[in-house]
Amino acid sequence: MDRTEKENVVAELSARLKGVAGVFLADFRGLTVLEVHELRKLFRKAQVEYQVVKNTLVKRAIAGTPLEALKEHLKGTTALAIAKVDAVGAAKAALDFAKTNEKFKVKVAFVEGQTLLADGIKALSSLPSQSEMRAILLGMINTPAAKLMAQFNAPAQNLVGVLQAKVEKDEKAAA
Q1: Which residue range forms the structural domain that includes residue 160?
Q2: 115 and 160 in one domain?
Q3: Rounded distance between C-alpha atoms, residue 53 and residue 62, angstroms
Q4: Least CB-packed of 5, 22, 63, 95 within 10 Å?
Q5: What stretch of H or E contains 154?
Q6: Is the dihedral of CA 134, 116, 29, 126 positive or negative?
Q7: CATH number, position 85
Q8: 143 and 66 both lie in a single domain
Q9: Alpha-carbon separation of residue 31 from 38, 40, 93 (angstroms)
Q10: Edge to edge, what strands does the sheet with 114-116 contain?
Q11: How far apart are CA 22 and CA 13, in angstroms?
Q12: Predicted confidence band at 81 (pLDDT cuts at 50, 70, 90)?
């Protein structure tokens, strides 16, 4: 790779790293091509970009940004997993894959201005995803309205119940 190609890779990578939800560094040494294909498929479902880039190029791309905290972890074989939208989904996907493939190890993550090591990544993966949080919030918003509607409907339901009992009583008396 010549100098201009390296500069293009660095520029492209630094542009892709702007405004991300999270960046994960992983050691993929020893994975087969089939396993890497499965990992990429899993990451695609979680809307995560997976890429293997030389450590020196990554260091240049993150220089002068908050992601520079990852610099000390760029040693050995390193792959980048870039979560554009949901860092929780990326953490879940990475740890799920790591459970079935011992060779794949998530080294470190950078999420919301913080560097997370293994324990932090496990804690992050246990959180609800962004879509799950939206569903929970929507449920919390809808609950008071549903209870209010139930209170409005209760008198009418009680009246219908009384009328139905009267009709049944009259039918029994007529029979």
Answers
A1: 131-175
A2: no
A3: 13
A4: 5
A5: helix 130-174
A6: negative
A7: 3.30.70.1730
A8: no
A9: 10, 12, 16
A10: 48-52, 79-83, 22-27, 105-111, 114-116
A11: 14
A12: very high
Least confident of 28-32, 49-53, 151-155, 161-165: 151-155
Please give the model's pTM, rounded to 2 decimal places. 0.70
As a three-state string, the secondary structure of 116-152 is ECHHHHHHHHCCCCHHHHHHHHHHHHHHHHHHHHHHH
Q: Which residues is 27 bridged to in the sheet?
A: 105
User: For residues 80 and 89, is the Cβ–Cβ distance under 8 A?
Assistant: no
d(C-alpha 33, C-alpha 101), whole Å: 13
Return left, alpha or beta for 114; rule: phi > 0 is left, psi -120 to 50 is alpha, else beta. beta
pLDDT, tens digit (0-9, with 9 covering 90-100), for 27-43: 999 999 999 999 999 99
110, amino acid identity: F
Distance from chain centroid for Cα 149 = 35
